[in-house]
Amino acid sequence: MASSDAAAAQAATPLLKDELDIVIPTIRNLDFLEMWRPFFQPYHLIIVQDGDPKKTIRVPEGFDYELYNRDDINRILGPRASCISFKDSACRCFGYMVSKKKYIYTIDDDCFVAKDPSGKDINALEQHIKNLLSPSTPFFFNTLYDPYRDGADFVRGYPFSLREGAPTAVSHGLWLNIPDYDAPTQLVKPLERNSRYVDAVMTIPKGTLFPMCGMNLAFDRDLIGPAMYFGLMGDGQPIGRYDDMWAGWCTKVITDHLGLGVKTGLPYIWHSKASNPFVNLKKEYNGIFWQEELIPFFQSASLPKEADTVQKCYLELAKQVRAKLGKVDGYFNKLADSMVTWIEAWDQLNPPKGAVATANGTAKSK
Amino acid sequence: MASSDAAAAQAATPLLKDELDIVIPTIRNLDFLEMWRPFFQPYHLIIVQDGDPKKTIRVPEGFDYELYNRDDINRILGPRASCISFKDSACRCFGYMVSKKKYIYTIDDDCFVAKDPSGKDINALEQHIKNLLSPSTPFFFNTLYDPYRDGADFVRGYPFSLREGAPTAVSHGLWLNIPDYDAPTQLVKPLERNSRYVDAVMTIPKGTLFPMCGMNLAFDRDLIGPAMYFGLMGDGQPIGRYDDMWAGWCTKVITDHLGLGVKTGLPYIWHSKASNPFVNLKKEYNGIFWQEELIPFFQSASLPKEADTVQKCYLELAKQVRAKLGKVDGYFNKLADSMVTWIEAWDQLNPPKGAVATANGTAKSK
């Protein structure tokens, strides 16, 4: 087969077509899907609308999608809908829960297709899939970055017993143009743009926390899905813009405990516009204080051996949040409750094998 | 001052000119120094000859250098010269000890000037100095790599209390063309070349070990010098090619304990030729087995609070090597002895402030 035929064949049967859902919080502009059409159209989209359910989100022709608004969430989860943030893009995690696929890719609607240094459009989804399908190396650092990439390998001094790596649970992609800065940094550096294309994928080592951004993120639902709770943010909550961070810290503690890997680096998307730093400061204000307590908490969090599933790990973490962070602010008691509710809701929509879900999502044992 | 004048002035007074020594093991070809002349000539060179002392190493005109052969090492260190490897480039660490400067850059004689993607010669030394003069971030991962580089910063979710970073003790540079592979990988992939220029510098997180290569390495002697012992390799020893690895593992445990940082990534050098994989296999054979025990040893090594200097840390580590690795092979008892001798020799040549060294390097208190 000539190489152009091969490329065409590959384009016709995109990677993991039937095993991956794309989860998008409210789409505020039609350009977004038009720009991504060549890459996203073969996949199923789950759109989770964060605002007024009466407003209609228009999805261009040709996309296969399902759309959930607040009324749908309330109907499907009943009282457990309380764990899903209201009027905040953190509600996207409902999409993770309602999906039936093995892999999730989530992206914000202000993220467009970036170009690599040669000027070629970057197929972000394809790179995420490559990241997820190849192992991670959380137990030892490889100085030539991802040893499973073409043209790379493990360097001298890398123990052979560790070269099988660990299953990859998370692929964290980056952003060209507008970097993901907090409000104080946005205010101080309003003109800073990220123009550095770093051609690397790497594993975040075991025991190391990182700031996980939800703008351009893929993960293996089977391996880590129940840890990807984006918390309580937005309307009625004292904090915003920490949804993905919270999920990242919980996820990293759990992947470390379960021997799974988290990768960061490629692919880049083009982050088109900076959000308003004044609005962001208001949302982040409490988080900026609280994270000084949260980081030591997560750095020292330890899970018992018996916690051998993501759900068990997450419930244990909820217990520790209540015990140790409740004194930081009452919000964390509420959050701990919601973490438990989230797992209940997850299990409701994703009953263990041998049970079936009813049409409205309530689990019923066979 | 016009900017071209400023650039000229900067070129005339290279960074840290009086504070950095370049340490090179035996130079086998004159091209090496000729190629590096624009970058190295302003600095002082310390050449440590690993082979027959009767052979003469020719250094091209115009370089400021001192050269030590085995006879010099024996004369200066006396019986303590036993800790310096014989007929192996591991002897370079004698140069770290005999230097009186704050910074060391060490490079192999088969490493040439690399080009960046724009085709410009890379000033490796300048990048190492930038790495060493800016802080590291060992306590939390920054997804946009080195936050202190131009055009970069800490991303959202990075705790503000950690943004001062930690002093950088080590800058580990990489290699284009021939990657630093072990003998088995060389044998399996004889044609693999590293052509990926990754435009990043990053901190290796606290608690994470890495394979430190001595080909293109800079460090702060004041902060970490006494840990940069390249062990017992080569003639009369059952192992080779683990000199830099050993130094890297010890160094990382100690920098982690003392709150210092280790960076890796830029700068690249051009590694011109692969060493013979059959010869390498013979040298590495034992190391490949032993490293499976060494990594868990270093991963679990813990230093007491009282170990508040590099020397104290290193002597404590020597004790643990003897206690825990002696049973792996008798070699490690000999190595533990040499680690102690190395520190004695270091203190002999680098007497504490308030003491003076005599001409032949023996310390004498004031």
From TrEMBL, chains A, B:
Q: Which reactions is this enzyme annotated as catalysing?
A: UDP-beta-L-arabinofuranose = UDP-beta-L-arabinopyranose
Q: Any keyword Glycoprotein?
A: yes
Q: Where is this site: Required for activity?
A: 156, 163
From which domain of life does this come?
Answer: Eukaryota
According to the UniProt entry, its GO molecular function terms are: UDP-arabinopyranose mutase activity
Return the EC number. 5.4.99.30
Q: Which residues are glycosylated?
A: 156
Per the record, the GO terms for biological process are: cell wall organization; plant-type cell wall organization or biogenesis; UDP-L-arabinose metabolic process
Name the protein family.
Belongs to the RGP family.
Described function: Probable UDP-L-arabinose mutase involved in the biosynthesis of cell wall non-cellulosic polysaccharides.
- Please give the name of this protein: UDP-arabinopyranose mutase
Species:
Oryza rufipogon (Brownbeard rice)
